[in-house]
Amino acid sequence: MIRFLAKRFVHSFFVLIGIVLVVFSLFQLLPGDPVSMMAGYSTTMSEREEMRKELGLDKPVSVQLVNYLNDLSFISVYEDTPQNEYKYDYQKLFSVNDSQVVLKKPYLGKSFQTNKRVIDVLLEYLPGTILLSLAAMLISTFLGVIFGVLSALNKDSFWDHFFVALSTFGISIPTFVSAIIISITFGYYFGDFTGLSMTGSLYETLPSGKKVMKLQNIILPAITLGIRPLSIITQMTRSSLLEVLNQDYIRTARAKGLGFIKVVFVHALRNALNPVLTTVTGWLASLMAGAFFIEYIFKWKGIGYKTIQAVENMDLPIVMGATIMVGTIFILVNIFVDILYAFLDPRVRIDE
């Protein structure tokens, strides 16, 4: 078990380094001057040069890369100056010559638009994305298991063909297309009947300045985001349950006179849901990455909404930070899925 975890963390570390290198390379290759974006074009040349020096952009690319990796690390090495202590907000561990080994949050730079720390901006928007992903996964899992069970128990019937066709359609339709259709249909045309809006976030500010929670705003984006996993869970539940129902121990249970409900829901379904549960857990990370356009279309304030805004405004530190954060979450969730699957399925021997 320890060997498996160590191997997975080492592999994940190199994947994360790869993501960081790609993000850093894109930052170097993209057109535009970061200093001009931050300072504007009304500043003098000397002020821009001073800002370029402060950002470390006057140094070779290799030195910039080393500094960037140092900034991203929880344990870093900096010169012990008041400016660095204020900039990185670190806790000193021990000294090495004229430098300090420090403990801190990953430093992703500052936003070109607001001059706020990127990590603070992303952490402000992260709960919205997590909440939306969890809501979408709960909806898709609940309905997907029900549809899959009904389809398997009525194999080759009208309902079986209906749920299979519906799930195939759900997998095929692009997410941004379904988002636009659902937003217009249920938020505009039937808005008076549903009581839902085309756009909205978890918290909305009234004209008086007071913030109010509006949970109904999560319904449409969560349903839209859950369409694809719902379709996959439906098909996986159907195929897995059909396979289990043909096992010898199920036929033995029926021969012993166990009732239909007990055979299906106690013996068959419990074993059939192992691969489904693994898929559900793995999809959570994918939903966080796939929520970008959903959040933007529904104006749901999450990391995706903020990242697309940053792309429009050429706020590159926000884009880079969001990419690294989502990649890190994806890696950690995948490690958790591997461990969970080993516990759920005794046929898996992760220590081998």
Automatic annotation (TrEMBL):
It is a multi-pass membrane protein. It comes from the Bacteria. The keyword Cell inner membrane does not apply. It is found in: Cell membrane. Its main location: membrane. The keyword Transport applies. The chain crosses the membrane at residues 12-30, 130-150, 162-190, 280-298, 318-344. Pfam families: BPD_transp_1, BPD_transp_1_N. GO terms for biological process: transmembrane transport. PROSITE patterns: ABC_TM1. GO terms for cellular component: plasma membrane. Keywords: Cell membrane, Membrane, Transmembrane, Transmembrane helix, Transport. Residues 126-341 form the ABC transmembrane type-1 domain. Belongs to the binding-protein-dependent transport system permease family. This is Peptide/nickel transport system permease protein. It comes from Sediminitomix flava.
